[in-house]
Amino acid sequence: MALIQTTFADSVGSISLDHYEKRNALSESMVNEIIASLDKFKSQGARTVILRSASAEKVWSAGHSVDELPRADIDPLPYDDPLERLLQAVRTFPAPVIAMIQGSVWGGACDLVINCDIIIGDETAAFAITPAKLGLPYNVSGLLNFMNRLPLVVVKEMFFTADLIGAERAENLSLVNKIVPAAELEAEVNKMAQTIVSRSATSISVAKEALHALSEASSISPIQYEYIQSLRRNAYFGSDYLEGIQAFTEKRAPNFSKPAPKA
Amino acid sequence: MALIQTTFADSVGSISLDHYEKRNALSESMVNEIIASLDKFKSQGARTVILRSASAEKVWSAGHSVDELPRADIDPLPYDDPLERLLQAVRTFPAPVIAMIQGSVWGGACDLVINCDIIIGDETAAFAITPAKLGLPYNVSGLLNFMNRLPLVVVKEMFFTADLIGAERAENLSLVNKIVPAAELEAEVNKMAQTIVSRSATSISVAKEALHALSEASSISPIQYEYIQSLRRNAYFGSDYLEGIQAFTEKRAPNFSKPAPKA
Amino acid sequence: MALIQTTFADSVGSISLDHYEKRNALSESMVNEIIASLDKFKSQGARTVILRSASAEKVWSAGHSVDELPRADIDPLPYDDPLERLLQAVRTFPAPVIAMIQGSVWGGACDLVINCDIIIGDETAAFAITPAKLGLPYNVSGLLNFMNRLPLVVVKEMFFTADLIGAERAENLSLVNKIVPAAELEAEVNKMAQTIVSRSATSISVAKEALHALSEASSISPIQYEYIQSLRRNAYFGSDYLEGIQAFTEKRAPNFSKPAPKA
Amino acid sequence: MALIQTTFADSVGSISLDHYEKRNALSESMVNEIIASLDKFKSQGARTVILRSASAEKVWSAGHSVDELPRADIDPLPYDDPLERLLQAVRTFPAPVIAMIQGSVWGGACDLVINCDIIIGDETAAFAITPAKLGLPYNVSGLLNFMNRLPLVVVKEMFFTADLIGAERAENLSLVNKIVPAAELEAEVNKMAQTIVSRSATSISVAKEALHALSEASSISPIQYEYIQSLRRNAYFGSDYLEGIQAFTEKRAPNFSKPAPKA
Amino acid sequence: MALIQTTFADSVGSISLDHYEKRNALSESMVNEIIASLDKFKSQGARTVILRSASAEKVWSAGHSVDELPRADIDPLPYDDPLERLLQAVRTFPAPVIAMIQGSVWGGACDLVINCDIIIGDETAAFAITPAKLGLPYNVSGLLNFMNRLPLVVVKEMFFTADLIGAERAENLSLVNKIVPAAELEAEVNKMAQTIVSRSATSISVAKEALHALSEASSISPIQYEYIQSLRRNAYFGSDYLEGIQAFTEKRAPNFSKPAPKA
Amino acid sequence: MALIQTTFADSVGSISLDHYEKRNALSESMVNEIIASLDKFKSQGARTVILRSASAEKVWSAGHSVDELPRADIDPLPYDDPLERLLQAVRTFPAPVIAMIQGSVWGGACDLVINCDIIIGDETAAFAITPAKLGLPYNVSGLLNFMNRLPLVVVKEMFFTADLIGAERAENLSLVNKIVPAAELEAEVNKMAQTIVSRSATSISVAKEALHALSEASSISPIQYEYIQSLRRNAYFGSDYLEGIQAFTEKRAPNFSKPAPKA
Ligand code: NI
Ligand code: NI
Ligand code: NI
């Protein structure tokens, strides 16, 4: 293991993202390491897991590894995408996962963080959803994750502008449970973890599993889903997606085409 | 066109309600003008639409044209009501609609505003849902709109008291995305519109459509719906509705009957 | 009637919990008195009901009567549990129920309060969900009540830590409609009640009933429910539940077993 | 009681429609008698109820009392319609209701019969759904009743042609459990009733209630329902409904207008 | 128009598939002609449409035009596939569509026929679903169409064997409304059409639309859908699909690979 | 392995129940052997599995091992019951499972058989659901299995009478795919298996998985489920269940109490 650091003590596991040269981007390798750690913690009977960055930097995680996204013509966010498997691993982990956030959280990393059970950050925490910058059509389960956790107008603002939401606003929106000063962050997270460890692990894991089932209970009909999937397909076969990925790689602003006037 | 003003430039359409002698009430005529403008903007390839009042006044819109409501004995909020058609047009418009709010927003206008994708107001913005003053039974899809966007206790407070929610509280509740000083309102709205225009229109329209489908995914069984419809029918055939409309027309407080004691 | 006090005047009913030697615990006797009062108020045509404690104390209600919970081996929160019947009575009462809160609200009392339509407290109001301290697996409909009303990360924090949420944070979270100074609390509640009484009772009761139906519209498949029920059963047959109840009775901290490592 | 005959013996209740001069039409009076009998049987601990006509005639029941249907402009099949209340009483009766059918079953009587738990007829049994002859828009819960019980192409054939389905085809379609010769019908029904009485009433009533809940689990979104309700409203405000009722009263074939060509 | 023949008289439209050299395969051109005819019939106020083959041949329709299916790597049955658009046009046509069947009906043509409202055939009628012969993963809405209309074990037999179901068995299964001798088929279909024309078009179109909504009410969660979509994607990127299309084109039996043993 | 016999050849696995002294009752031991065999077949890449009895006897399987059912006071059909695990294993097996039936199929074995994908029997095949004889409240997912596969009146007849449905009627009801003479049964089953093996395993497994997801899509709300669960609990704590199990063990007819008259 090279891209993350882990510890386990007193029923608390800790996973630190530690690949800052890539801004902790959630590459397939890093994702696999995290999933393996979660599996190990589960076998060790972890009662809480802390997910954090190894050190306080400007960026907590840059999100998807853009160079691992398909160039075009294929769904970039399928069910068996590495990140999707990680989200599933967090949702089904039988104890709470606490995200400890310092710095900015981008795109897929934002989806990862909101899938954690409890989120605590310092004043540098900030959150952005970036598919509108990449020309990428987000997947429906991901949209549902955000809808289940944030006010609808905020979900739309985040998806339509791709701009950062700062720490204070994130706290007001309950995007995070709380924001504390940087100097107190570790202590606050550890205190929360210790409280959880002192409670009944059985009672907690049943509640987590039931809330998970209820969270996925917003269902749509197959024909509606296929309609949305056809819109998504048109998008990932389209020019915006090509341009978005290209511009990201070239570290320049994308130059998206104007939409064709519609009948 | 006489009740609204419109402009279109740089992929941004703007619609200004401009019939203040009727407090911008959403009459069938005005609604038809708005829908026609949205259709035009769609054909022009608009990437954002701004919905606003023509000038800063005490009232943004008084809501439904009460003199266009049926007197009694017929559902006052059917699916093919003009306002319902407008809500549908906003929800299915293939780009974000930003509501820019100065002054108070009443009843049906409040439903219109929360169906917009992003809402920005100044300190005079205020919001009230008024069917409890009119004795009118609200439609279920309208209640779902509010439930999808606001905390349940707040939805109930608004529907049960019909009192105004002021700008600061509206911001805390995420009823609006943000409140800014009046002097900065237009600039803030334009900045948001420009950001959206710079992003991928394709990515945004897919996300909007998927969120729309998920918003309507709260379904109830036909028998439950028919039960609620029977309660609504008893209401619009009842004395409260007659008195509410009458009182509104006579600009006096309604004098609702006490409910009959129930078995 | 001995455990509560009631009044009825001007279409407003009031119920005061008045058994402070047991910290207003929701014993079967007290629950039956409250339900009987609600039935009486309904027959009297009440247009609003206020639910409060008889006097301002440190505790509003301690929640379930722990000594009435089954020792083990049987679902402690079945559909026909007295408290569940009370929640149903509040949800189906044909007029708004306002909770007036002074002091701390624990466990089942917290479920009762969030099922009220409008909640107003003073600075001493505080809220905790305690099953994780008792080793008790909460029921799915109860979890849905919280999910319908609070941000998901907050629901999890409350269920996983069992710690109190104070008045100011409760207001920011819309767990309550508003927090006012203790000296103004009664006046504020009465003003809200008077406003509601002046509105159309018919319009309000239809809206309440429809919102109730929509609140229960999050459905899951039988097989999912049976899976969760099996987890719950393992919990109430397990050692944590026995220890949690025992510790509570002995007024000491529980000493929960570590979860067995899982395959 | 005058329109029905009832008996109760050995835990089996029997209700015989006995108003042949009106072809056992399900008038409000007759419906109220049936519901009262079901309530009485419930209090007597009935383990099976048989619903039949008093004697073998050409018609089992003519269905809704057409002269009790509203002339126009109001939903003819609301939730609180007498027949709807009867369907609900049959569905929620805590023991099986067996329909014993001789002769033809029309319209609302057909909805009544398929809501019975078990249906046995002789060779004269025949079934028709008649709203297309009356110009009447059927209610959604009624359509769901048929969809839950019959192949979709058959539901459509019945609703679109209003023609009778004969005994043999009804048996093949499982519209009825079985068809037996007239001479054996009473014996067959009694044998089935005796078998049920010998089984566990508790096991049976739980299964019936659970199947009832699952039957109503096909839910649609409020906006879809309101769309269909608007179609229904246009229908009961329209000319076909007026002509259909008029023609029925005058015992002549209706002369429906051609549909207006659509855009 | 060259691939179909149409007539319109007495409110009944008729569409005859007439491209037997291609076994009436549902090519994009033929589909577009059928949709255009339906649109025309709608504008003419058609009260019934008959869909048939131009003459009695061995094959009613061969189904999808296999040479128009994508070779690989792209969903072969997306929402905007021509055949999907035709199914949607049939489902939303505001009057009944009667399928008149002589000869065998294959694959996509079978989906088309079961989406018709009423189906009448002669003794040569036979039905097969062929994706298992092509290695093609069927779409979820298509599977739901079959599940809504046929017993589950029969749906599976048809999808897993791809074998023909003959006329008599099809009648027993209610796959068709009825089977009549070839000499009586046209008369039977015309009689059914005339009956429908004599009924209330308004009542019928409301029932059809409501049944359509209820048919699509089987919804699944986004995450479930994405899981199935990932299975489908693996299939249309896989070797079976390539081989299936190739073998069909070469008019030989496919030689599918054995599935890899799974962990 | 001792209670079943298995073979594997040409991609077809076969499992024969072989414990006739216990009438092939589905004891925990036998269930575990079947599940282990399915797992083995999966690893071998089986494309079809045949589930049968070792020899043609009067009874195919007696169902649940009644002496393994809990005496009382605990849910006899929980999610983690051995038989439930077997049903899940059959439903998620990635290839078709064909049930080959000779003789009578009772209770839980009937649930097992209808969860198979394809069912073929001879003239001795017969099917009964027996909880009403045992006083046992069936689980909701099990009721849904039957509702998904059989006409509602038949499900009720089977659950309310516990009587056998014979081979011919089973075929008419599509409870089985087909009934063939005993002498042809093995050949017929093998032919069906060979056809399936010749088709695309990928196409088939995707269809099976999607149909499985759609089958579980009938969802009910938590509060409805908890209501039914309370009825079930009252049943398995009640006297009928005790008497039913006792009578079965003593091989005598149960003597169920009359239901208490209800208010
Ligand atoms: Ni999940
Ligand atoms: Ni019901
Ligand atoms: Ni559709």
Automatic annotation (TrEMBL), chains A, B, C, D, E, F:
<dbReference type="Pfam" id="PF00378">
    <property type="entry name" value="ECH_1"/>
</dbReference>
<dbReference type="InterPro" id="IPR051683">
    <property type="entry name" value="Enoyl-CoA_Hydratase/Isomerase"/>
</dbReference>
<dbReference type="GO" id="GO:0003824">
    <property type="term" value="F:catalytic activity"/>
</dbReference>
<dbReference type="InterPro" id="IPR018376">
    <property type="entry name" value="Enoyl-CoA_hyd/isom_CS"/>
</dbReference>
<dbReference type="InterPro" id="IPR014748">
    <property type="entry name" value="Enoyl-CoA_hydra_C"/>
</dbReference>
<comment type="similarity">
    <text>Belongs to the enoyl-CoA hydratase/isomerase family.</text>
</comment>
<protein>
    <submittedName>
        <fullName>Methylmalonyl-CoA decarboxylase</fullName>
    </submittedName>
</protein>
<dbReference type="InterPro" id="IPR001753">
    <property type="entry name" value="Enoyl-CoA_hydra/iso"/>
</dbReference>
<dbReference type="InterPro" id="IPR029045">
    <property type="entry name" value="ClpP/crotonase-like_dom_sf"/>
</dbReference>
